[in-house]
Amino acid sequence: MDERRKNPSEIFCIWHTGIEEKIAAACRKMEEKEKKFDIQISAMEKALSLARDELNRRLEDFNNLRHEFTSDRGRFLTTDVHESWKENVCIWQNQVNTTLTKLETRSITWGAAIALVVILLNLGLHLWK
Prior knowledge:
Layout: H1 3-6, H2 19-73, H3 79-128
């Protein structure tokens, strides 16, 4: 019997010697790359999950902030109410200023009248002597 027929895996041509080791090495490299790729994918999934959780937390915070703004909005004055109050304060301020002017005028008038009476009394006493 011919040796080629006995054990065909042992008979290779010169170009194919060591091909099994090269294929095994290539398979090992592919397995290592597959493991690295799996690790990268799991890391990306974890990062995506963390980013999603952070985004949900921020969204919840913004919703709470929006709720606080809408509830606080009722505590502030509207522009119309503010303008109305401002007009009322201006009217009151003008009335106070008018009253103060009247009081100052009266006090000056009374002061002048009293001074005139005192001068006339002094003049009358001076002339009477």
